[in-house]
Write the structure tokens for this entry.
Amino acid sequence: MSDLDIILDKTERSMGRRQIQAGHALMVVMVREIGWPIGDVWSALTVPERLGQWLGTPDGDLRRGGTWNLPDGSHGDILRCDAPRLMTVSWARGERHPAELEFRLAAEDSRTRIELRYASVRKGFALTSDPAGGLWTGGAGWEYFLDQLEEYVEGRVPEKALGLMPDLSPDEAMGELFEARNARWRRAADDFDQEHAL
């Protein structure tokens, strides 16, 4: 098995539908196991000082029913927060309809199973056939987010917080990883379409 296959197999991928505030949405769902306790992973996602080290320091009314903003322009509402297992936020940049981002955490011995669900009413957010416009899509892009979270929890702090939707440089290695992940998301989308066609 190649190194690329090992990276790809770390994440389970599927698609679904979900009703969010903006309407009936398509949802990408990814599951990964992180080799650290649930408390470490939860605090990396929710403690402002820790978020500031790898993602960006949030401000706002940081409680359920409150709002959040990141320096990269991402913003939204905190819809649900049940520590240390579930957090749901709306997420928007610019004038787009807000999407919803949800994290579900489960403790498994000293490891954490994290499920990331991202739902949007925008068409075509999950895949791209042209990475020249950037390497961020709902599928492969949120996997990159999980990569950054995992690296941070393991003790690798980036020189600069990258924000929720970083400008990923399409170097050869990153481009290959993106294409391989995007191909896996195409398969997940085909499986979803076939299941719902029946």
Helices lie at 3-9, 38-46, 48-54, 138-153, 172-197. The first helix runs from residue 3 to 9.
